[in-house]
Amino acid sequence: MLVSTVDPTRTFKIPKRDTHAIWFKHLPAELIGNLELLDSNESVELVINGRPTGWARMRRSPRGPTPGIRIETGRQAWERIQRGETFTLETAVPGMGIPLRPKEATASTRLLRHRRGNRGPLFGGYEFADFSGARDIALQRRSIRLAVARGDEEPWEPAGRSLTRDGLQAETLRRLEAATRKSVRLAFGRDHQFSIPMGLAHEIGLRGQTWRECLESLGRGTYGGPRLAHVFEYASRFNSWSMSRSRPPYFFSRTKAGYYGVPGADPRPSRFGAIDPTTYRLTELCQGLRAGRIPKPLNQIGDNGTVGGQTVVGLILLRELLDEAQRRDIPLAVWPFDGLDISSAAYDGRHVMFEPYPSSVRDPDVKQSDWNDAVASVLCIQRADQAGGLAALLDLEALTNEQRTRVQFEGWIVGHRP
Questions:
Q1: Of 189, 188, 181, 178, residue with least CA distance to 33
Q2: What are residue 126's DSSP bridge partners?
Q3: 231-244 and 308-327 helices cross at what angle (nearest 10)?
Q4: Which residues are CB-neighbours of 59 under 8 A, at least 6 positions away?
Q5: CB neighbours of 262 closer than 8 A, spacing ≥ 6?
Q6: Whole-Å CA distances, 365 to 128, 219, 237, 368, 372
Q7: What's the CA gap between 219 and 1, in Å, rounded?
Q8: Would you say 74 and 52 are in contact if contact means Cβ atoms under 8 Å apart?
Q9: Whole-angstrom Cα distance, residue 51 to residue 345?
Q10: pLDDT tens digits for range 337-350
Q11: Cis ω before 336 (30° cut-off from 0)
């Protein structure tokens, strides 16, 4: 379920924990997402117990941005409050540094910074989440990690974050809205596949559909098969439906076949050197930045290193994210579905979502972990962008016409070489 952004008329009640600062970890999550977008020393006005006060984002430390704001003006109002005493914080402030009333927006909203054609980086911020397809909420909170960076700063983790999938969805929308209000263009993503192989789409009756039409058909079940659901339910249902149409089962698991109710071996193996077109996308057959790092196919679920399960649930949230961004007038595009070249007009002034594959971009001397995977995804885009090489990395115009059609339906992993 999607969570709305901060109500501009809302008053928060917060206990005072420090004499000179307010730390983000002591604030409601819906406020943190806005305050984190402040640059070092950038000012913000807050109404404390009915009185306007001025605050500034704390200066960076060697470990990254300091998660708090310090008092600058209105000290008397702040000092009257004793530590441990609860104070009110009002967010609806004329001229406030965090404008919670969105500016009048239209579908043609354009971000003012980091626009196509400007010199320098294409983006002002980079945010990638290591995703999870787990059913268990506690496991989701342990596995989902969000890495954030602004400009050329080191990636860091937002304070007070322990995210479920629904929480990540709400956080993503909140951060996109806040960045839009500050005219900061974001590159962001999640590490699951953004589409299904074209061969599978043709098999299940989706030939000729666009990527967005495919997401809609899968999400609603209008293609004739089961609608997308958690892979624990969806995998066996899809297999049964496939076999009812005289096709082999699709999903399998080498280690958890009984748990999912699917075969224990690939029912669609490669034969005589030919890859089954329903299991792999073109991008997965190409070399990534790190040699030997090959993604597993969509139809493998539950095994170590697979993304099939998290892709099934991820596609549900991706469709919802696109719909909600449109409803909120958030300028958003997804590469390469909206154009094979990131420098094209389709991406001008929009936040852009990318599909990463952390294993292909993580430094070989860095240990694999959920956090390190999120950081590796940020660094891949950030380093290329800050060095002026992102446009070259995200240009697939050299593909053949047949390949271009396929890629704009299947998507592409950042860093894989066509």
A1: 178
A2: 149, 187
A3: 100
A4: 40, 41, 66
A5: 235, 236, 239, 249, 251, 252, 253, 301
A6: 21, 40, 41, 9, 11
A7: 15
A8: yes
A9: 46
A10: 999 999 999 999 99
A11: yes
pTM of the model: 0.77
Q: CA–CA separation, 235 vs 262, rounded Å?
A: 7
Amino acid at 201: A
Tell me the C-alpha to C-alpha distance, in Å, between residue 44 and each of 53, 70, 77, 207, 263. Answer: 9, 10, 16, 52, 57
Could you read off the pLDDT of 166-185 as tens digits, one per residue?
999 999 999 999 999 989 99
- Quote the percentage of the chain above a pLDDT of 70: 88
249-256 contacts at long range (C-beta below 8 A, 24 or more positions apart): 250/200, 250/278, 250/299, 251/299, 251/300, 251/301, 251/308, 252/299, 252/300, 252/301, 253/300, 253/301, 253/302, 253/303, 254/300, 254/303, 255/302, 255/303, 255/304, 256/301, 256/302, 256/303
Rounded to 5°, angle at Cα 369 from 366 and 374: 90
Q: Write the DSSP symbol of residue 333.
A: E
Structure-block tokens of residue 303:
């095994």
- What is the C-alpha end-to-end distance of the chain, expressed in Å? 37
Residues β-bridged to residue 413:
355
Report, in angstroms and rounded to the nearest whole number, the Rg of the chain calculated over CA atoms. 23
SS3 280: coil
Token digits for 12?
């928060």
CB-based contacts of 346, cutoff 8 Å, min separation 6: 333, 338, 339
Looking at the DSSP assignment, which residues form a beta bridge with residue 271? 274
CB 283 within 8 A of CB 396: no
Residue 129: enclosing H or E segment and its boundaries?
Answer: strand 125-130
